[in-house]
Amino acid sequence: MARHQRQWILSDPHTAVHDAIAFLDRCAIRCRGYRFWLFLLRRRPLAQLLQILVEDTDRGRELRKSNPFFGPPHFQSENVRRRTYKLAKANARRKSAF
Question: Where are the domains of the chain?
């Protein structure tokens, strides 16, 4: 899922980052992960943000739990939501086959 989101972010970085910040600003609960995402989105280059999003480390896994790119603004249509779900499901199947 994170790799698909990375591709989506790269397709329109300005909108993706803007929507993610707006999503985090609307959240009533500010968990540690959300605060760190706000820091990344506002203060770090896009390349670093994308690297963290897909890294296979404790930090990467923890941040994916609070990933703002999975919020409602990013599923603007039913087709996008279904395609994202299918891609994530296919990736999970491939990983479990190994």
Answer: 2-97
Q: How far from the centroid of its chain's Cα atoms is residue 6's Cα?
A: 7
Alpha carbons within 13 A on the beta-carbon side of 51: 6
Residues whose CB is less than 8 angstroms from the CB of residue 88 and which lie 6 or more positions away in sequence, other chains included: 1, 4
The DSSP code sequence of 15-73 is HHHHHHHHHHHH-S---HHHHHHHHHHHHS-HHHHHHHHH--SHHHHHHHHT-GGGSGG
pTM: 0.52
Q: How confident is the model at residue 1 (pLDDT cuts 50, 70, 90)?
A: low
